[in-house]
Design a protein that fits this description.
single chain; 4-stranded antiparallel sheet
Length: about 110
């Protein structure tokens, strides 16, 4: 598993040279203080990314950290900006390389 800074480098190195669009999979950990904030919505509206939530676990009213498993689709600059936004919130983001060699994570 990797942290965001290293992960950004991995993501950017896995983009296809023939296309600006790509997809990534991430697990995004959401601390209790952000569980009522529109973090995912911001990725869509502010960074024009396509986001698919493939799994989630949020401890509603428990005060514990939760997570989203998400697929993000966009061009290189959109994804990079979206990841920088998530990093600015100090969210924990992890992923691992797909052994099939495509640009997907998790």
């Amino acid at each position: 598993m990797t942290t965001l800074n290293h992960q950004q480098n991995i993501i950017l190195s896995n983009f296809s040279k023939h296309s600006n669009a790509t997809q990534i999979r991430l697990r995004l950990y959401i601390p209790a203080c952000y569980q009522h904030q529109p973090v995912i919505s911001q990725l869509i509206s502010k960074y024009n990314l396509v986001v698919n939530i493939t799994g989630a676990s949020l401890g509603k009213n428990t005060g514990y950290e939760g997570y989203f498993d998400i697929q993000i689709r966009g061009d290189i600059s959109q994804i990079s900006s979206g990841l920088s936004y998530l990093e600015s919130l100090n969210l924990k983001i992890v992923g691992k390389l797909n052994v099939d060699g495509d640009s997907w994570f998790c």
